[in-house]
Design brief:
With 321 residues, this protein is of the alpha/beta class. It has helices at residues 4-13, 27-42, 87-93, 125-136, 142-154, 166-177, 182-190, 195-206, 223-229, 237-242, 275-280, 300-317; strands spanning 17-20, 47-50, 73-77, 99-104, 115-118, 209-210, 216-221, 251-259, 262-269, 285-286, 290-295. It is globular. The structure holds manganese (II) ion.
Amino acid sequence: MLTRHQAAQMLASFDRVLILCHRNPDGDTLGSGFGLCRALLRQGKKARVFCNDPIPDKFGYMIPKQEDFVPLHVVSVDVADPALLGPNTEKLLASLPPVELSIDHHPTHKQFAENLYLEADSASCCEIVRELLREMGWEIDQGIADCLYTGLSTDTGCFRFSNTSPRTHRIAAEMIEMGADHTRINKVMFDTVTFAELELEQLALEKMWMSDDHKIAVLTITTDMLRQTGVSETQLDRITALTRKISGVEVGITIKQRGENDFKVSVRTAETISASDICANFGGGGHARAAGCQFDLSDPVLIREKLVEAVRKCDGEDTGR
Ligand SMILES: [Mn+2]
């Protein structure tokens, strides 16, 4: 593992950089990617971002003008596992140099890049990018500040999750000083919902499963429900956050169908059980309060039963790390 200084030196030496985000992109992977991309461009270097999936419109303000070029260096941001790069990225990588530097904050990071800079206690990858830019002495403009602020805010649930640290707030304050439009960003990320999303929410809630002790809540989103409401797979963050809000619920699970035998699961937990430990049972991972895993099964009920069993197992032995 690199030190911060080494990672910064490596980045500073790069030109013609391709930056990779994880599939189903969120505010942190895109904020880190476009923030770093803008910082490189500002140094007169060539840089662009690639993501396996289309970038949702609400993140459009982050995207700078990017020209095409043949990359010499490949960097990934917020990608915890090579499987999260996605098939389109894999295809692109086949004709490119290997991923040279991976910048991440997931404690469960599975190393795939030649070099790793990991701050496992950082609330967001954007915080790490900020510290790397500081280390290099690169200045931040309003565009970069908007990107980095977005990741800080979205990965902490608008500074409410327990991963939020004094440093998160300090860097957020700094980004606001640099011109980040925090009011607009937080409104878009947390206080805006489309009618279609509300319809989907209603459908999902009607069929929500609760354990007898009301400690586990499970929502299932099928591809049929997405088709019926017109909501895209990338717009499910809000629903994923719903179950944990229910008073008394310690584990909130969202099972999202992506294909016939392809379900993506998001687990959110309160204080006592580790979401990462639950998902580790199925080859997934993430953070203590938010983690994910994937199932190649066709029956969401079976998936739910397996997950509930894993929750009970973790509940018996877990300290909630
Ligand atoms: Mn992140």
